[in-house]
User: What shape does this take?
Amino acid sequence: MPVVAEPTIRSVILERTAETSRIAHLLRRTAFGVSPAELARYVALGFEGAVDALLDFDSVPDMPDPAADIPNFDPERIASMQQRWVYRLVGSPKPLQERMTLFWHSHFATAFSKVNNPSWMWNQNELFRRHALGNFRTLVHEVAKDPAMMRWLDTVTSKKGRPNENFARELFELFTMGIGNYTEDDIKEAARAFTGWEIRNNAFFFNRAQHDTGQKTIFGQTGAFTGEQVVDLAVSHPATARFIATKLYMHFVDDHPSRQTIERLAGIFVQSNYELKPLVRAILLSPEFSSEAAYHAKIKSPVDFVIGSVKTLGIPAYPQLAAVLASLGQALFNPPTVKGWPEGIEWISASSLLARQNFANQLATGRNGSRQPWISPSEELAALGITDDEDVVDFYLNVLIDGDATPSMRSALLSYLASGERTPGRRGRDGKVRGLIHLIMASPVYQFN
Amino acid sequence: MAYTRRDFMKMGALFVSIGVTAPAFITRTAEAATGTLPRILIVVQLSGGNDGLNTVVPYSDPKYRELRPTLALSEDEILLLDDRLAFHASMARLHERYARGQVAIIEGVGYPNPNRSHFRSMEIWHTAIPEKFEPSGWIGRYLDANCCGTAPVTGVEVSNAAINIGNTLPLSFWTSHVLVPAIGTVNAFQFQTDGEYPDDRQNQLTAIREIYARSSSPREYDEFVRTVGRGALETSERIQQLARTYSPRVTYPNDQFSQNLKLIAQLMQADLGTRIYYVALGGFDTHSQQARTHATLLKTFSEGVDAFLADLEAQGKADDVLILSFSEFGRRARQNGSNGTDHGTAAPMFAIGHQVRGGIHGNAPDLVNLVEGDLKYEIDFRSVYSTVLEGWLGAKPEPVLGRRFDSVPFLKV
Assistant: This one.
């Protein structure tokens, strides 16, 4: 990791202020974390400036398609698609767009295991990216006609007289209103409205002959509803704004939204005609977001952990990261069920925690495909003029966990650094600093987002 | 769903609000309670909603063929159990074991007011409380009540009394007091340190143990993560020792499910005091083109379970084991227009092992008196849990299930 010795990095990291920690918190939640140099640039903008910079990404030029950098790239292989997305997650100059793309992937969870078509999966991913912070109603309409979704939830097999309920059920339960706001009959009736929805030439095709044009009664309203009208009914249902506001609040803030907060956010969402950017802006600028209760109050998902780690340590994307994510339980394009991935303590088990600690060990002490170390902490410290043990420990505590450690954790790390060889080199000082970085990343607090 | 998550999280908060007390190990208490060697329960979750009608097939019922014009299994696609019911032919290995009296089929299992959402119905099976959302699982409550010493449990404990195979813990195991380890593979299950600096390994282990011993930050999930981490460090050391000495007596199929069962056999060898293992086989949500997928899944299930029992038989341990399989629901009696089946209700469960009363318990499915196109349940799944708790684990069912349920006589013991 080549490091430019900007005095700002040293001061931003070592002389940590509450405002810097607040911005680091914002960047963990919206951008999977950033390197010290990038943090210094966001700190210069101030908190609200940083929120604007993250949200208003439309004018930011996109990165080139990473396909060219991926060895043996093949658009017909799902592994290549996973790698392509990992490179974007690490390298995109619009990190919140990628974060929202991942959010929608988990919300409209579609798995390759059934869709079995890598380019459809990628096209769906581009759909999520295009509408990442766009209009929710438009997003649901396009998802309903997205070939990957249509195969995933069997819309394609739904014929007049023989409707398949799968898509109608999940549209209500998982994509818009949430369970408890509709009946089994609503599902059966709604399923009829999606008959005749087919895929031809890799795109949505309406087969009028297979569409059930009869009267349907949904949410107490009767009409010859089309699939599009059912999507509109579901989006407009009052439960939907609350459901989406709750899910986004819990994604960005913490696991304990209050009823008043959700009502306020849902109101903003409805007022803006289901535009997502005003809703997310309101969440990020809410007092709850910057509160003590929200700070380090979420468990990192594997993507938070893996992408966050390489970004924070300044390691460029590499192909195996996609497999690392899969081994930690988050294979991109393959969520476990239509409900998507969990968001909290479900991620932490004995084996997944050990796997995280072992991945951290690889980054801190291992080497890449060219036999070069992933990181060069001795050079980094030398360039910043950081030498004594306390400064070294505080530097990495601040870079990795905003210095949010108890005195007992800090003193365990200081004792570790002081133990063993004091000589320079891989089996002396350099090895100890790598061990220190591994230990901080293996600690409980590094699992918090 | 949002409601559910919130409650989940409340339970997370409960973990951290309770202090940690001195370890109280489980095995001894469990042995004391039953007076015998601990019996072992293996719960197999068939995720996605297994089509019961094409698993235990009512082949002689003309209504079956009428409801399943393309999916009904023909004479050469089934293996007869009696004059009404037959196994899907993919389950040849279990059919052999059925003939030897090692497979109990419990027919028509479900619960009142069935829910057809995967997630809610799975929660109901995990919590065994259909009426409301309950943040603890039935196995978790069993562990709370039976596993951690005679004194009332006052602390959060990592217990090896139960182990989940797989990286995330199902709701069945959630408790207020006991954390159950989830294990993926043996090789990855250890704290690795700097390979280029082996002299430093002890220093790193000392530091990580210290960090996990005391609060690392005042945050909401600090104690939760530390408790899991301490358990992982301790259990992994014992499992590493065992992995070096274990060799299976049979060749397991290569699929993940069978490999997970092999891992259970391995862990049983480790003598961690584990009484309950939990393993899932997913993919049963067969809304379209069901025939081939379902056949493959049932074959995986049947061959994996058979290899596992054969391994234990060779080691003389098969008598200690009961395998119990369930799915969150069966599927709609009438097939849909996609050569698949939609979400349904009641379905058979299997209890497999040397200690079961082999045969069919309950009645063949009634395909005439359907409720909204679905089978009416005849046996409450909590009766099955109750039988296992009382008859196999030697525990009182009421504290776990909230009230009494009739038992189903599928156990010899």
In short: Confidence is low (pLDDT under 50) at residues 1-36, 148-157 of chain B. Residues 2-401 of chain B form one domain. Chain B has twelve helices and 14 strands. The longest helix of chain B spans residues 290-314.
